[in-house]
């Protein structure tokens, strides 16, 4: 069903939605609450774009402004370059899938999917053809005549998606649509949503507070906190090069080490670890660290070694076997905890234990050292 008009010519980036300096203040005077604080972001055509952040950070508010259910206090929202301030929700080529699917239980799957098209006054023949197409798209042809009260949660989710896609919106807004599903079904629907987005070519703006979901599905992610967008980037960029401490903490597991900033070395920072060792670490563009600065090291980028001469040293407190990997929790000599993650290999599973000195041999109570490649550690903004 990809609309020819939505194809991107090679190499050209077309912005589907542009949010410019949008503020949203609820209430007034002493009760004024800034839900969005000068947010700007460009979302590209055909993109799977995710708004990720903790509860209350403003994700739903931003979606509601794009949908037209509410208005910005100031700032602009452009759709393909045009300000849509004057367009009521039903005139915007934008549709929304909510967490609660809000299907009509007494209607069949097919009738639910066709409902929006009927409201738009489309001819019966067109509705029939579009509903059939949508049923195929979400793989629900065999349940077309079943009442929606008689299908499973995952199937209801598919019907809600088909209903929202049926009028062929240019942008689909999805507000935590998978949160009511159990873990296994959610994983399945994540793949399904990716496929639907790919096959329809529609821009998806997806809201979640689940970082794993965001990493798995998105072309790009905007990480939000307290009404602001802190960082926008591809999943790997956000994970590998978080710009701020909040982003590093919110996405994935992270070790923080307080270090002394010694100076710049080209695009890198020179820092002194609590052990006295000096290393180079990644630095975000334009960031001037303070004298005391946080260094972030992902658990999977660190390895255990002997304590003597290591970058950091401490005592192993716990070893937690998690099937795919094992976590080693250390108490460092200068106080904080540090986690090293090691992926378990088939050789280990088969009982061919690695040689002494590797992670394998470390047990609780034992002294251990930590090393990591200098390029993997980063200095962060607070
Ligand atoms: N109509 C309103 N009046 C006053 N405050 C509001 C209103 N709507 C939202 N807020 C506040 O604005 C902030 C952002 O709300 P929003 O629903 O956008 O958060 P969210 O990131 O989507 O959170 P969640 O993940 O819990 O849905 C919250 O603190 C919320 O209490």
TrEMBL record:
Q: Fetch the PROSITE patterns from UniProt.
A: ABC_TRANSPORTER_1 (PS00211), ABC_TRANSPORTER_2 (PS50893)
What is the enzyme's class at the highest EC level?
Answer: translocase
Q: Name one GO molecular function term.
A: ATP hydrolysis activity
Reactions performed catalytically? ATP + H2O + polyamine-[polyamine-binding protein]Side 1 = ADP + phosphate + polyamineSide 2 + [polyamine-binding protein]Side 1
Spans of biased composition, class Low complexity?
Answer: 346-358
Segment Disordered: which positions? 343-369
Which ranges does the record mark as transmembrane?
A: none
ABC transporter domain boundaries: 17-251
Which controlled-vocabulary keywords does the entry list?
ATP-binding, Cell membrane, Membrane, Nucleotide-binding, Translocase, Transport
Query: What EC numbers are recorded for this enzyme?
Result: 7.6.2.11
- Tell me the function of this protein: Part of the ABC transporter complex PotABCD involved in spermidine/putrescine import. Responsible for energy coupling to the transport system.
Give the matching NCBIfam families: potA (TIGR01187)
Sequence similarity: Belongs to the ABC transporter superfamily. Spermidine/putrescine importer (TC 3.A.1.11.1) family.
Q: How does it assemble?
A: The complex is composed of two ATP-binding proteins (PotA), two transmembrane proteins (PotB and PotC) and a solute-binding protein (PotD).
The name under which this protein is listed is Spermidine/putrescine import ATP-binding protein PotA
- The protein's organism comes out as Labrys okinawensis
């Amino acid at each position: 069903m990809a609309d020819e008009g939505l194809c991107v010519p090679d190499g050209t980036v077309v912005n589907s939605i542009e949010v410019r300096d949008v503020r949203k203040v609820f209430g007034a005077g002493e009760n004024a609450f800034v839900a969005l604080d000068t947010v700007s972001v460009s979302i590209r055509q055909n993109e799977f774009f995710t708004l990720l952040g903790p509860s209350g950070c403003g994700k739903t508010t931003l979606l509601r402004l794009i949908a037209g259910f509410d208005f910005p206090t100031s700032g602009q929202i452009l759709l393909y370059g045009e300000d849509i301030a004057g367009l009521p929700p039903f005139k915007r080529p934008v549709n929304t899938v909510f967490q609660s699917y809000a299907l009509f239980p007494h209607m069949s799957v097919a009738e639910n999917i066709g409902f929006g098209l009927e409201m738009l006054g489309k001819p019966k023949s067109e509705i029939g053809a579009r509903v059939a197409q949508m049923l195929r798209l979400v793989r629900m042809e065999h349940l077309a005549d079943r009442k929606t009260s008689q299908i499973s949660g995952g199937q209801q989710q598919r019907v809600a998606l088909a209903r929202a896609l049926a009028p062929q919106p240019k942008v689909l807004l999805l507000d935590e649509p998978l949160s009511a599903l159990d873990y296994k079904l959610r994983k399945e629907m994540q793949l399904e949503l990716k496929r639907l987005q790919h096959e329809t070519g529609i821009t998806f703006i997806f809201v979640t507070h689940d970082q794993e979901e965001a990493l798995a599905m998105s072309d790009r992610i905007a990480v939000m906190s307290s009404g602001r967008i802190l960082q926008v980037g591809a999943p790997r960029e956000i994970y590998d090069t978080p710009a701020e401490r909040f982003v590093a903490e919110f996405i994935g597991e992270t070790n923080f080490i307080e270090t002394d900033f010694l100076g710049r070395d080209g695009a890198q920072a020179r820092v002194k670890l609590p052990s006295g060792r000096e290393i180079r670490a990644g630095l975000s563009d334009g960031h001037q660290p303070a004298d005391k600065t946080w260094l972030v090291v992902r658990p999977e980028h660190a390895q255990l070694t002997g304590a003597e001469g290591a970058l950091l040293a401490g005592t192993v407190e716990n070893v937690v076997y998690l099937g795919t990997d094992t976590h080693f929790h250390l108490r460092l000599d200068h106080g904080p905890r540090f986690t090293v993650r090691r992926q378990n290999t088939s050789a280990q599973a088969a009982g061919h234990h690695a040689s002494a000195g590797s992670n394998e041999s470390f047990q609780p109570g034992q002294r251990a050292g930590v090393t990591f490649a200098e390029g993997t550690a980063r200095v962060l903004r607070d």
